[in-house]
Amino acid sequence: MQNPVLSMTGNLMWTRSGVVWATWRLQGMPYGFAADATKQLARLQHQALFQGLRGEAVLLGLCASLDPVQVAERMLAGVEIGGRPEWAQEVALTLDGLADVPVGERTFWLTAPLAGTHAKHRARAAAHAVESELRDILALPRRVPSADEVAEAGIIARRVEEAIPGAFAPVRATPAELVWMAQHAQLRGLALDSEAPLPGSDGRRALDVSAGHARGTDERDRIVAGAAFAEPLLDEGGQSDLAPRSLDRFTPFRRRFLKVHSPCSDEASYQVLLALTGSPRGGWVVPGVEWIAKVDEFDFPVDWAVRLQVTSGQAVKRRNKSAENTLRDQITQQSVDGETSIIDNGGHLGDVAESLQSYADALGRSDKEVEVQATTILAIGASNPDDARTLAKHVQQTYQLAEFVFDAPLGGQEQLWWAMHPGAPTERLVRELAQITTGREFASAVPLVSTDLGDGAGLHLADNITSGRHGPVFLDLEGTIQANRSASIGLVAELGAGKSYTMKKIAGDLIDRGGRVFIIDRTEAREYAKFAGSLLPDQTALVDLMHPTASLDPLRIFGVREGARHVQSLFSAMLGVRPRDELGVELARLLSPENVATLGVTSLGSLRAVLAGSEPGSNGARLHGLMSMVAEKDLGRVLFDDSLPPLDLRARAIIPLTAGLPLPSEHELDNKHLFDELSLEKIFGRAMYAFLTGLARQICFSTAQFTMFCADECHHITTSPEGQAHVLDFLRDGRKHNAVAVLASHDPHDFGDVRARGLIPIRIVMRHTDPELAERALDWLERGIASDARILTELTENVSPAGTDGRVAPDRQGEALLRDARQRIGKVRIVAPKRSERREMISTTPVGPDGEALA
């Protein structure tokens, strides 16, 4: 067979058979880790797709390679790289690391011949094909379709497009994409495949039909000759590889493959085409055996195509009525004395009758039901025949475990290969291999499901390991905000699973890309102080509250006018000076602009000095006593020591260290008598956490620069009403101020109430071996999936699992379940920074005396 395409424009192609075909690129639906309700919706969308089609159609799932250069370009998108040498180095190292690692994605396509509503349309298309053949014979230039022909085809294609459910987001294919599909088939298995062209930004505008004419609105409307497709040399069984007298020529059963030699490559592709010839007699269990989607579980590319012939249920019922009458006659003729014979194959008629009745019942469930005749083809390629057959054998054996039989028909490899091409007519072998079912039943195969995660560009957060086809997962927090969506992140994991590592990975990349971060570090090991060593030293500010080298005095870091407001809030929580009490009113008077200027107040230390001269028993004296209670302790240095330089709010990374600062327990906060007896240290700690969270809010909400607030072990903040209120502000209003919050804890309930938990769109759940905590984490990840035993087992047993030695293998560290901003869920592995100094600084694994990691 020759290349079937004569010419094309937009998503339309005119073929040698006289039929015009149209092709759309489809978007897969999330499925693998979705809740049962979401899976049911996906099956219903597939059912609507099959029930909306009529006649012939082809569904394609092709594995597209992803060029490492494109990964680098996505990481650079939106970054002024000239002033970001650290990010440029990270991208360069990422590019080097991807050079030998195959990454890719699966692309989905629907292509269908356009059956004209009038005989003249079909006659015109046939005449065009005959004329093209004659011109080829006479060596004359081919005639391109006229504007009227394009317009007519566009109208018919629009009807097909309207039948495609919007959930699959159909976009009209371009000639570039159609050429890529043909080239991909010729280079299958050679690792030479180029990435699939990006779909147009407005694919639905490929044809602008007005007054019966097609107007070229962009490059996609240009008529492209079929010569754009390279003509391959097809050699079934690789006969050209055999010596003239080789005995292998007489053993064709051992050579069930197709050798494809493309003009685009000096190397031939060896491909095995498998066709579905048998399925479980009793059907398959759904969810659980979505058999077409199973191809993504292989760690090598497997393309698939489904040739469909869809017939309305009413037409099938009329046909089956005739079959029923014939079957009744056969049963009557084979009956003896009114009893059906079971000898000489007569007994099988009862099985036929039962099958016919079951099929009729299935068709009668809905007036929209259709009959689907589907020929399913899998294509596996390699650079040599042995590898191709080995991979194909693995596919066959894997499917055979579920009672699905795939065979490589002898002598039919070339026909199956062409059957996977848009525009190629259906040949006899393909029709003979069709499996007959209903639209509802075939929808349970859910072929159009995607494992895509993350954003189109941004920082490289993780590798997608949901399926055997690994690909990069990008996180574009700024882009998400610009799309008017929240970009806050929640991290949940048990101890040592990697939530702190992930938080530091995100924060470090954000700083390298030009953003700002505010991180509260409460760890005794001061791990974020260590992490700060990998950041820009002149733009990083560390504030150790217990051993301060910088002051957090609000009057000094904000200025007296703005700082006065923060002082009143701080003293309310720390000293019990309520704004409307006598002491609160006195404090407000002292910090008024007039008195501040008169008294020379520039800091809390100077304010305390002014109050030192107050009359005994006065409100000023009482304020001085309360302030001295804190100022004279080591706790108070960070607020009252004027010898310390004030915190520089211009720093790109601000990291307060709160290790050693105790906090009241939730029980103490809930019981008044316990709260009244709190130690000074706990009162101070509670007030400072609330102040730090407010400080973070002030910094993040007062700049146009993209800023991130990070709270590891966030229960230290959310246990207090003040801290919880500030966190809720971040989650509610961060988007408006170009800011996000990143919260981490062992339990999602630590993020706050149901409102706070629900306002976190990007959710990451790492290893949780405790079933109860794992269920809570999964219920937060997506309501409903906690009851799925398969997903619960996946989280507790197969996310960064420990080996027999109690250690997690290096290649299994950092695994997690991720729900992205588009609410798609999949399994990922967090990638480590490529720069060695950053990688060392964000690790929290203890090391022994020999320098080796202890865990």
UniProtKB/TrEMBL annotation:
Domain of life assignment: Bacteria
Family matches, as InterPro entries: P-loop_NTPase, T4SS_component
Residues annotated as transmembrane: none
Species of provenance: Pseudoclavibacter chungangensis
Name of this chain's protein: DUF87 domain-containing protein
One Pfam entry name: AAA_10
Region span, Disordered: 835-855
